[in-house]
């Protein structure tokens, strides 16, 4: 098999799908919440990178024209060189290269060598082929779904007792009374006792430091696993988080909205976070996530992956220092909220995708390990962009 591969063609396939009973949050409209009878139109895309060896990398995602023209003619196995070139091109903006590109290159490498990505990364052993998950909820609503503090407690119990989850993360209300947020933090712990790890992600919804502190002290009382991105500043301020750590004992997680390796190193140095957030799409793909895992490991910290994907399953299977896979977003009354781009729903990160112990499988096929359902994608196709070399 030749090792001097060349990228010959890049395709972005766009598709659309509908999610029922989900719509814009009524207060600000930026988040999605349960809205019975609403039909939410959603868009998606698939990035395909073709090579002259007939090996193709396929991953959910997209690419812009500038990056595509750079990629054409490149050797897809030179991932780190490509990663650093594209990272420089993003300076002053995202601080990390396009993660979908990197994931597609890893998919090519795995298919070339006939191995799953986690094997190329040196992982997959020591029980890491079953990934413990936390159910990560949609924001609270005013429509009879996640409306009362007790609704969250009931949902956590259902996730534990019916589906085997051992951890649960709440996204609370946007613009609601802070007392209800405090009550929800405590109500979930009362509902599940000590049987689940609990997390809270306000997603920057709180207005004042007092609000942040009141809820943080409730997290202390309820023994939460972490408290995430509570400040209205989007989790960007190192000093705000360092100050908060002086008042509460619950570990902090920040970094979802801070992209790339060097800024997250600064978070650690400033003691602004206790867990390091990483996302293959926004932190430079699998290459970027594994660099962050090594950075966190060198500082004695754990990495928690933001959101789900096949790439994250391979990364987590290859990390020592990671605790939970985020399966979200989920809601007790919203079903089929993700596009069925894989034939088997166990790979789509639905609420019911976990095994009886609340864990997800790691793919074992070459590359990302699970073929796309091109019949479904083609049936829902809305457009295509093609970039080709000479």
Task: Please give a structural write-up.
This protein is of the alpha/beta class and 390 residues long. The chain folds into two domains: 128 residues, 2-Layer Sandwich (Enolase-like, domain 1); 232 residues, Enolase-like C-terminal domain (TIM Barrel, Alpha-Beta Barrel), CATH 3.20.20. It is 32% helix and 23% strand. The strands form two sheets. Strands 4, 5, 6, 7, 8, 9, 10, 11 and 12 form a nine-stranded mixed beta sheet that branches. Helix 6 runs parallel beside helix 7 and helix 9 packs parallel to helix 10. The two termini are 24 Å apart. The model has no long low-confidence stretch (mean pLDDT 96).
Question: What labels describe this entry?
Answer:
four-stranded antiparallel sheet, alpha/beta, Enolase-like, domain 1, TIM Barrel, 390 residues, 23% strand
CATH topology of the largest domain, anyone? TIM Barrel
How far apart lie the N and C ends?
Answer: 24 Å
What is the number of domains? 2
The CATH superfamily name of the largest domain is: Enolase-like C-terminal domain
Roughly what fraction of the amino acids lie in strands? 15-25%
CATH architecture assignment of the largest domain: Alpha-Beta Barrel
Rg over C-alpha atoms, rounded to the nearest angstrom: 21 Å
Helix content: 25-40%
Shape: globular
Order of helices and strands: EEEHHHHEHEHEHEHEHEHEHEEHE
Describe the largest sheet. 9 strands, mixed
Give average pLDDT, whole number: 96
Tally of DSSP helical segments: 12
Number of strands: 13
Residue stretches low in confidence (pLDDT < 50, at least 5 long) are none
CATH class of the largest domain: Alpha Beta
Helix-strand makeup class: alpha/beta
């Amino acid at each position: 098999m030749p090792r001097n591969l060349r990228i010959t063609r890049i395709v972005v396939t766009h598709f659309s799908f509908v999610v029922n009973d989900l719509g814009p949050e009524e207060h600000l409209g930026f988040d999605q919440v349960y809205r019975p009878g609403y039909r939410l139109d959603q868009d998606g895309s698939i990035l395909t990178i073709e090579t002259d060896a007939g090996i193709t990398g396929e991953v959910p995602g997209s690419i812009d024209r500038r990056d595509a023209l750079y990629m054409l003619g490149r050797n897809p196995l030179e991932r780190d060189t490509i990663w650093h070139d594209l990272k420089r091109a993003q300076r002053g903006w995202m601080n990390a290269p396009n993660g979908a590109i990197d994931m597609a290159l890893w998919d090519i490498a795995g298919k070339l060598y006939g191995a799953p990505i986690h094997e190329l990364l040196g992982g997959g052993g020591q029980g890491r082929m079953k990934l413990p998950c936390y159910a990560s909820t949609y924001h609270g609503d005013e429509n009879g779904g996640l409306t009362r503090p007790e609704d969250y407690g009931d949902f956590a119990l259902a996730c534990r007792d019916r589906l085997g989850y051992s951890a649960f993360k709440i996204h609370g209300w946007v613009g609601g009374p802070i007392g209800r947020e405090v009550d929800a933090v405590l109500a979930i712990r009362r509902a599940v006792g000590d049987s689940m790890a609990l997390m809270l992600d306000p997603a920057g919804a709180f207005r004042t430091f007092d609000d942040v502190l009141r809820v943080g002290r409730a997290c202390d009382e309820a023994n939460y696993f972490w408290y995430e991105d509570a400040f209205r500043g989007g989790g960007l301020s190192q000093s705000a988080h360092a100050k908060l750590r002086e008042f509460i004992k619950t570990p902090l997680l920040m970094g979802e909205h801070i992209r790339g390796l060097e800024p997250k190193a600064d978070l650690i140095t400033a003691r602004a976070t206790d867990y390091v957030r990483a996302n293959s799409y926004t932190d430079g793909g699998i290459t970027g996530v594994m660099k962050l895992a090594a950075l966190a490991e060198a500082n004695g910290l754990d990495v928690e992956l933001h959101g789900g994907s096949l790439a994250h399953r391979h990364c987590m299977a290859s990390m020592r220092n990671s605790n939970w896979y985020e399966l979200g977003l989920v809601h007790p009354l919203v079903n089929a909220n993700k596009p069925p781009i894989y034939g088997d729903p166990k790979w789509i990160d639905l609420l019911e995708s976990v095994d009886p112990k609340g864990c997800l499988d790691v793919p074992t096929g070459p590359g990302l390990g699970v073929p796309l359902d091109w019949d479904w994608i083609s049936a829902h196709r809305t457009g295509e962009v093609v970039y080709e070399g000479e």
